[in-house]
Design brief:
By secondary structure, the protein is mainly alpha-helical. It is 76% helix and 0% strand. The longest helix has 28 residues. It is globular.
Length: 202
């Protein structure tokens, strides 16, 4: 029941996040709507972003307990912070390699069934999330509404986390004798993709 309540909360948060852009159809400025949609699509247009965010959801379920909410929440918060850095004139080095490495590291944690405290796992994903957020912020279209753009990529990130969490929970509930291996296999595939992405990012 706790897991179902968590998924319901995430869904509500995602809907609340997206609602400002659509609250008054026909009255929202087209520029704001475009900024929101652009932000919503940005995390979905890069394989590295998609894999990392889904993997964070898988890891959260794999660890369970407090990690179930702390891991995805820490990613979102750190991503928002990272997204503000380009506007503050801060330049992060090695952004693409760091993002690619996040796919590799989180995939390995899942595949190896690493037993981490929730705080440690949250810190790891948050450190990578800063780079994901920086990339989103740095690629915001000129003259776009920063708020609407941010709301868009936050909603997309929450949805990707929830996708990973739901997939992991489905595997855990499966009656198949091989179901318990599903997360490890998924983690291994994510890590393999992370190796390729990291190599191509330099």
């Amino acid at each position: 029941m706790k897991k179902l309540r968590l998924l319901s909360c995430i869904g509500v948060v995602a809907s609340l996040i997206s609602s400002p852009a659509w609250a008054h159809p026909g009255h929202v400025e087209s520029a704001n709507a475009t900024a929101f949609i652009t932000g919503l699509l940005h995390p979905l247009t890069g394989l590295d972003h998609v894999l990392a965010m889904v993997a964070v959801g898988l890891l959260a379920v794999r660890l369970g307990g407090r990690a179930l909410w702390a891991v995805p929440a820490s990613f979102v918060v750190a991503m928002i912070a990272g997204g503000t850095l380009p506007f503050a004139g801060v330049q992060l080095p090695m952004v693409e390699p760091a993002i690619a490495s996040s796919v590799l590291v989180v995939g390995l944690l899942i595949a190896m069934q690493a037993k981490l405290p929730a705080a440690s796992a949250a810190l790891i994903v948050a450190s990578f999330a800063v780079f994901h957020g920086y990339a989103h912020g740095a690629e915001m279209p000129v003259n776009a509404s920063a708020l609407q753009y941010a709301l868009g990529f936050i909603a997309a990130t929450a949805a990707l986390h929830m996708t990973g969490m739901m997939a992991a929970m489905a595997a855990n509930r499966s009656p198949s004798p091989h179901a318990h291996k599903a997360l490890r296999v998924a983690g291994g595939l994510v890590a393999a993709a992370g190796v390729a992405l990291t190599a191509s990012s330099f």
